[in-house]
């Protein structure tokens, strides 16, 4: 089969012919219909993830059809159209049995722990526990990002922060996961404030549910200091938000979120850091702020998210601004370290 292969961290990958995978016991092989280009893919490409070994096929957001069943799989049949969370639980441990597969100590992640979905086929392990049937009614563009960006944002806002209708939530960083959080917050009846340095990203946020936007570039275009970003958020919202989301993985933007947050507020950290941050912890202590991580979502929690997509309250497909081939994905992965395009890019193998 054809796949994008990373031979050296940080060096442009190539599309190569590689052996087609076999379904392991308890797992399946999927024919990939579409897959996503996500900032987490760049972390793997750059060598930031210790689970990645070379050579390596990236890709962890996908929709596809079951092509082959491993021994013991009973929940799906060949031909079923499915997606899967990017964090896949073992299905056996106490965390998985409690419905918290996203923190399974024996988790696997396509595109990280093993070859991913930037290919014509991909292996999914513990299939009975991790596959999510999506039927034939939803376009691929509506399903691809449910594996990572929308699932992570949905769990962060609902399962972690407990976001309620009418609350103000500031979302810092309007790439794919940030825009997902804006759309989900609006669908839940909250009031999202979108923050970014890219006018195109802010325009997308406005078009997809942001009540207000904050351009944090500053006069010199290099970005405001955290306290100034926090002040701008409060001014735009007319109050301190009760929930903040950081979707970039930068120390300065996390500090801005913590400085803007209302007393007893809840901060959701989704962005991944390249290096351990030093944060505004004195305010976390003095204002009794809750700092919450969100790292994907278990397959068991997908029905609520899919209900929003099926009834039209949430339209992930509206964020797709570019569809590319495997060959084009090689350049797009390198480009992701240099700049971020507004919206979501998907790959059609």
TrEMBL record:
Keywords: Metal-binding, Oxidoreductase, Zinc
PROSITE patterns per record: ADH_ZINC
Cofactor(s) the protein requires to work: Zn(2+)
Superkingdom in the source lineage: Bacteria
GO molecular function: alcohol dehydrogenase (NAD+) activity; zinc ion binding
EC number: 1.1.1.1
Keyword Aminoacyl-tRNA synthetase: no
Xref: Gene3D superfamilies: Medium-chain alcohol dehydrogenases, catalytic domain
Ion transport recorded as keyword: no
Residue ranges the record marks as coiled coil: none
Domain Enoyl reductase (ER): 10-347
InterPro entries on file: ADH-like_C (IPR013149), ADH-like_N (IPR013154), ADH_Zn_CS (IPR002328), ER (IPR020843), GroES-like_sf (IPR011032), NAD(P)-bd_dom_sf (IPR036291), Zn_alcohol_dh (IPR050129)
Signal peptide: none
Top-level class of the enzyme under EC nomenclature: oxidoreductase
UniProt similarity note: Belongs to the zinc-containing alcohol dehydrogenase family.
Designated name of the protein: Alcohol dehydrogenase
Species per Swiss-Prot/TrEMBL record: Brachybacterium aquaticum
